[in-house]
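FIELD: query
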Amino acid sequence: MVNISKLIKQLTNEDPAKREEAILALGDLRDERAVTPLIKVVNQDTIENRTYSINALAEIGDHRAIETLIFCLMDNNENIRLAASRSLGKFTSPQAISALLVSVRKDPNVSVKSRAALSLGGIGSELAVEDLLTESKLEHPAPLLYSIDSALKMIAKNNGYETVDQLAHALLEKKVKHKEITPESQQLLEKEELLRFPNLWPYIRKYVFQQLEGIQTILSIESDEKNAERKIADILGENFWKFTEFMSRKTAIKFSEYQSDMLWQMCWDISKPIRSEIFQMMKDHRKEVVEIDKYREWLDIIEEEKEREEEISGEAVLDIKTTPIAPPTQKEDSEVTAAELARSISGDIENIMKKYSRWKYDVEEQDDFGEF
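FIELD: result
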């Protein structure tokens, strides 16, 4: 068994190579105990080891790293900024989105700008769309424009739109709707008002986890990603009105429709890593079911051949190893039934949720948050 404490202690070794070895190992292990020690390395080691630590923090994916990674976007070394812009793409928080948008607009290095844009695409939040659309119309170098276009396509796909135009049109309709109630200048003030609340993200993470904690009992018979995503949205939305009221009391803000919509988008964005892992696991299981079915069909063919040989010769003469039987045609994913999938995914979804159980304790105070 790997000794995490020993690896963490190795981060202070005088030999940079030994520190590098520990950093890489901790990134691979993805243990949350390494977050604070790795943050220290980011702040005070060689450029190479700082870069490795930034990457390791992204692999661990703990939100405590976000502030440090944002600070790294302002580093004098472009390699540090590049690593930070890549790593922030693993964090679905408006803090990361805002910082990456600043990099797209203001970083002096085109590679960093492009990487920041692609990270925004990876996050997949609608909160970045308006700024990216604006940047896509400016005179930027071709690599950056390509990255912005790719990012917009990723965001469109993540939010269920077939094209960027559809995404832009939907956001425009939302904007017009909000403008009828709240002027654009007022929207900006309301956004800043909401973002100023210090425990906003911990509360959002806690709400998302509490809503999805028992999700395996609901998704265990889902074999279609779109249906599963709809189920997740339904679960997140079930008590959202209570959560909005709770946050209104905590922030002492009487939420406008615009702020409520923003809060919902944040909840949806924060749930993305969980959604992504669940969908990938379901895809893997579908492939596994297909392979098992292929193997069963192959065994059936072998049995039929053996029976046929026995009928002819009166004894079993078929050598499975040498018989040239073509493998059966692979079934399409759509043919994998929900019942087949249900036999295997429930436990795995539970394990995925365990990885995010720390979100439940992001906010220590119980308050009336326990109502959810």
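FIELD: remark
The first helix runs from residue 4 to 10.
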